[in-house]
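User: Second chain of the day. Same drill as before.
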Amino acid sequence: MQISQILRRKGHEVATIDAAESIRTALARLAEHGVGALVVSSDGRRVEGILSERDIARELHHRGAGLLADPVASVMTAEVHTCPPTAGVHELAQTMTHRRVRHVPVVQDDVLIGIVSIGDVVKARLDELEEERKQLVDYIQTP
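Assistant: Same format as last time:
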């Protein structure tokens, strides 16, 4: 299964934020969209970074509540691992595990077209395994 199939099912909407916005605004946007990460992008097309709940929690621990007024750029991860829509689910699961990331923006021709979470990848993999199981049962039960 390819990442494009996950995007077909879940959609291409990506919650983004400008790097100059405050962490307080980022927290509101995370809650508003019910997501664990925001892609940092000034135009909604180009990936400039990513900001996760984990990034904010770690910095809050180190810097305290004053962090809430700071810009997203001060906390975001600037080196973002992205994938093309043609990437395989199994391959991306390995990459996410190895790099310890939970969200990967999907980019085609340098344009943001979606995002997948580790939950999306796990669900897709479970769906694949269930389909394989059904095919094996059908094969075994067919005279």
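Helices lie at 3-10, 23-33, 53-63, 89-99, 118-141.

User: Great, on to the next one.
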